């Protein structure tokens, strides 16, 4: 039986040498204020972020940017611009992709027949739910397709 851990490890080997995107976390301090700081890097594979040691579930994705002086028609646009500025303030380069709010996936739990984040063992097949409304698909096919796209 193929495990999710083995499939993820194979994907990480296939991605070696390809560019990664930044992983960030929000921090707040009295002296430096609110900001999003770099805590690592990962390959973005659809609903997954893969590092050398972990599989993570994606959450919020943004680009570090100066919000400038703009008028916003929606409060959500203003909030998003402020979040992009927090990444810039935290040390990310202008235009750099930043992933925040991600969570670690428990691959051991998936391999044992359970579920963690977007991964689950479905009828003894490691599977991924590629969208909140979508169904399950085999993780092996999902990773093969996504890695090929990145290797492009």
Could you outline the blueprint of secondary structure elements for this entry?
Blueprint: H1 4-15, E1 21-29, E2 33-45, E3 48-50, E4 55-57, E5 60-63, H2 75-89, E6 97-100, E7 103-104, H3 107-111, E8 115-116, E9 119-122, E10 125-129, E11 136-138, H4 139-151
Parallel strand pairs: 1-6
Antiparallel strand pairs: 1-2, 2-3, 3-4, 4-7, 5-6, 8-9, 9-10, 10-11
Protein name: Glutaminase
Description:
The structure is a single chain. The chain is 30% helix and 34% strand. It is an alpha+beta fold and 152 residues long. It has one domain. The strands form 2 sheets. Strands 5-6-1-2-3-4-7 form a 7-stranded mixed beta sheet. A 4-stranded antiparallel beta sheet has the order 8-9-10-11. Helix 1 (4-15) packs parallel to helix 4. This is Glutaminase.
Question: Top keywords for this entry?
Answer:
alpha+beta, seven-stranded mixed sheet, 34% strand
What's a concise summary of this model?
With 152 residues, the protein is α+β, with helices and mostly antiparallel strands. It contains four helices and eleven strands, in the order H-E-E-E-E-E-H-E-E-H-E-E-E-E-H.
Strand order of the largest sheet: 5-6-1-2-3-4-7
Percent of residues in beta strands? 25-35%
The number of helical elements comes to 4
> How many structurally independent domains?
1
Please trace the helix and strand order, writing H or E for each element.
Answer: HEEEEEHEEHEEEEH
Tell me, what's the shape?
elongated
The helix-and-strand class reads: alpha+beta
Question: What's the count of strands?
Answer: 11
Nearest-angstrom radius of gyration?
17 Å
Ends: how far apart? 29 Å
Mean pLDDT: 93
């Amino acid at each position: 039986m193929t495990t999710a851990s083995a499939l993820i490890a194979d994907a990480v080997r296939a991605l070696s040498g390809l560019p990664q995107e930044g992983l960030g976390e929000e921090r707040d301090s009295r002296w430096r204020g609110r900001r999003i700081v770099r805590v690592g890097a990962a390959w973005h594979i659809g609903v997954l972020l893969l590092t050398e040691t972990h599989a993570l579930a994606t959450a919020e994705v943004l680009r570090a940017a100066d919000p400038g002086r703009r008028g916003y028609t929606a409060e959500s646009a203003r909030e998003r611009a402020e979040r992009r500025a927090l990444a810039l303030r935290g040390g990310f380069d202008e235009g750099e992709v930043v992933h925040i709010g991600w969570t670690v996936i428990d691959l051991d739990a998936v391999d044992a027949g359970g579920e963690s984040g977007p991964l689950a063992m479905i009828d003894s097949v490691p599977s991924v739910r590629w969208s909140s409304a979508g169904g399950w698909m085999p993780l092996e096919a999902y990773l093969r397709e996504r890695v090929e796209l990145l290797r492009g």
